[in-house]
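Sequence design from tokenized structure. All designs in this work follow the same two-part layout: the structure record, then the generated sequence. An example of the structure record is given first.
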């Protein structure tokens, strides 16, 4: 007898997660989408995979009234039983947690979600589990801030607790700069965390979790650190690390320790670490309960043959049904990704013809590529070549955004 169809309610205040929606439908789920009204005429959702789509008013782009959302979904529940709520974007995690708590559905609740959204909660949880993090302090109390800047050597970075990636981060070298910024924040001061800036190499581990176990993970190394790309307008690159190398093993082990401590049970994660230039030690930076952005999922699919969006849908379904999940057998190729702003409105990149080129970005004022090869050394050669060509022929920079998705 076939399993009864389950209903997934997916939240997406931004357009993303098409492959998740399509895979959930292929797995026999009824898929409902709750999204922003501002996307109604522009988003190209896979409507053939959706049983229904609902729009939340967003007077400020992508910002929803949470009480109205809760009442709307509760009204929907009167006639449609919802089995799982999935947040497709980092900025929807709190919304999904609030709904799960109210409707008493499984998955991350509001407290657990903090470990995947709140940079202060992340650091405190990691430190409590003896996972190395940069020295930090909350920005609640002036005496604590004074003690921090007097005892921890600069530079320091002030990070918004609830923004994604490097958005809104500011770097300071002098004590007075910190205080000027703290006072300028006024009543927003408590929404930040202050920490020591550690120069080093930045890495990310993208993983799949099932029943509290890491069942798949792949590690990668950024080129220019994301903070520098965001603040100085650099060129974003990342590449798959040598499988089984000392660095790969160390990162996968640390990733497992972090997400075990954070009690991620079923889902996917994108987690970032830094290897300090000064002492060679690895430090935890931040994590998430979502698929990595900036086309990292496309890179992983190209190199490893694993689509994290699709696997996430399978994991969520297995979690609701109580069945087992087996990750796919990955390919052994290596890959590299490059993305840059471009000064041309629609850059012509047809002169990039290397046989290893498997994807090119088609987006206004952007240029981007994914290259794939069985040889990791070839990936480095191509990324170096492409970075130089993009810098000379296309690259543009823009002022750093201070808000998410400005």
């Amino acid at each position: 007898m076939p399993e009864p169809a389950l209903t997934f309610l997916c939240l997406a205040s931004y357009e993303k997660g098409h492959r998740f929606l399509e895979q959930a439908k292929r797995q026999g789920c009824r898929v409902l989408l709750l999204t922003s009204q501002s996307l109604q005429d522009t988003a190209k959702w896979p409507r053939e995979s959706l049983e229904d789509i609902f729009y939340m008013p967003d007077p400020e782009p992508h910002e929803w009234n949470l009480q109205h959302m809760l009442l709307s979904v509760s009204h929907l529940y009167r006639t449609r039983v919802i089995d799982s709520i999935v947040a497709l974007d980092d900025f929807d995690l709190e919304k999904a947690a609030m709904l799960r708590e109210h409707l008493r559905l499984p998955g991350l609740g509001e407290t657990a979600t903090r470990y995947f959204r709140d940079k202060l909660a992340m650091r405190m949880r990691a430190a409590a589990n003896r996972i190395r993090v940069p020295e930090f302090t909350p920005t609640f109390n002036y005496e604590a801030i004074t003690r921090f800047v007097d005892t921890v050597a600069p530079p320091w970075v002030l990070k918004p607790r609830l923004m994604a990636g490097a958005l809104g981060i500011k770097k300071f070298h002098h004590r007075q700069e910190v205080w000027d910024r703290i006072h300028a924040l006024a009543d927003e001061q408590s929404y930040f965390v202050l920490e020591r800036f550690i120069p080093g190499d930045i890495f990310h581990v993208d993983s799949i979790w099932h029943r509290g176990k890491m069942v798949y993970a792949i590690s990668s190394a950024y080129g220019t650190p994301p903070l520098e790309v965001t603040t100085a307008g650099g060129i974003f690159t990342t590449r798959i690390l040598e499988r089984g190398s000392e660095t790969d093993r160390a990162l996968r082990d640390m990733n497992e320790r972090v997400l075990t401590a954070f009690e991620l049970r079923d889902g996917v994660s994108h987690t970032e670490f830094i290897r300090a230039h000064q002492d060679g030690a690895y430090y935890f930076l931040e994590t998430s309960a979502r698929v990595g952005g900036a086309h990292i999922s496309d890179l992983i699919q190209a190199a490893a043959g694993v689509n994290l969006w699709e696997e996430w849908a399978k994991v969520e379904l297995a979690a609701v049904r109580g069945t087992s999940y087996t990750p796919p057998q990955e390919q052994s190729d290596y890959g590299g990704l490059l993305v840059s702003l471009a000064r041309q409105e629609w850059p012509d990149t047809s002169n990039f013809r290397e046989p290893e080129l498997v994807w090119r970005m088609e987006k206004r004022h952007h240029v981007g590529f994914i290259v794939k090869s069985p040889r990791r050394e070839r990936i480095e050669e191509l990324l170096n070549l492409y970075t130089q060509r993009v810098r000379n022929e296309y690259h543009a920079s823009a002022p750093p955004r201070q808000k998410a998705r400005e």
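The radius of gyration is 21 Å. We note this feature because it recurs in several other targets discussed in the main text.
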